[in-house]
Design brief:
There is one protein chain. The protein has 236 residues and is of the alpha+beta class. 50% of the residues lie in helices and 10% in strands. It has seven helices and five strands; from the N terminus they run ααααββββαβαα. Strands 1, 2, 3, 4 and 5 form a five-stranded mixed beta sheet that branches. A hairpin with a 6-residue loop joins β2 and β3. α1 crosses α3. It is elongated. The termini are far apart.
Length: 236
């Protein structure tokens, strides 16, 4: 008898790198109408600068003109990829801005080196879904509110008092992400943390974070949303 063919379904093939980049570009273009303009400028400017330098430094040399042109094209492609990455991240976080858990998504995927944060809030209001998140880094302890400042002020104060119980002179910075006029936009949150003046060493960051985690009660709440899996909003 002939052997029966294996009918086990094969796992779907992952898209290639170029296809992934095209999908990212398509997603970004839905929310960022200027992405094409910025990418074109990102490519054209380095090429134009390279050609100008070639004509200025090596007039009449075809070889140098070719080399400078190749360098300009490579620099332009790199600039396009950098611009796409930055605008795609902004577009992704724009989709989830205002949703519960959005700050947690930033702390999970966009924190810069030297910072420690959790996608789980340290305090939450079950009725309004307002929350407070915490990040620890060289700049000290940062408390980030998610929701209107008038509703999160009490939770922020309670968390600030807990930090002061550790003793010492630990710097505490409070950042608001919400509907307030002076709130920090979600896509700028990670960059805002890097601007805080360093006051702790790497060893102190680890010690402070471990101590705060041991003092924080575990909350039975869901994790932050995933910006790359957020459902696109329909246009009006």
């Amino acid at each position: 008898m002939a052997r029966s063919k294996d009918k086990t379904p094969r796992p779907p093939k992952k898209p290639g790198r170029m296809k992934q980049m095209w999908q990212v570009f398509q997603m970004t273009r839905r929310y960022d109408k200027k992405i094409v303009l910025f990418m074109v400028l990102g490519f054209v400017v380095p090429v134009a600068v390279a050609l100008g330098l070639a004509l200025l430094l090596s007039p009449g040399s075809i070889l140098n003109l070719v080399l400078w042109t190749i360098s300009g094209v490579l620099a332009g492609i790199l600039a396009m990829l950098i611009i796409l990455g930055q605008r795609a991240e902004k577009a992704a976080y724009t989709q989830i801005e205002g949703q519960p858990g959005a700050v947690g998504a930033v702390l999970r995927g966009s924190l810069k080196r030297g910072w420690v944060g959790s996608e789980m809030p340290v305090a939450v209001n079950g009725k309004t879904q307002d929350a407070v998140y915490r990040a620890v880094g060289r700049g000290g302890v940062v408390l980030i509110s998610e929701g209107p400042r008038t509703r999160t002020a009490r939770m922020l104060e309670e968390e600030r008092r807990m930090v002061t119980r550790l003793g010492g002179s630990i710097a505490v910075t409070i950042i608001s992400v919400g509907p307030d006029a002076d709130a920090v936009p979600l896509h700028k949150l990670a960059r805002r943390l890097t601007r805080i003046k360093p006051t702790l060493t790497k060893a102190e960051v680890l010690a402070v974070n471990n101590r705060l985690n041991s003092m924080t009660k575990k909350l039975p709440i869901p994790k932050g949303v995933d910006p790359m899996k957020a459902r696109p909003q329909r246009g009006n």
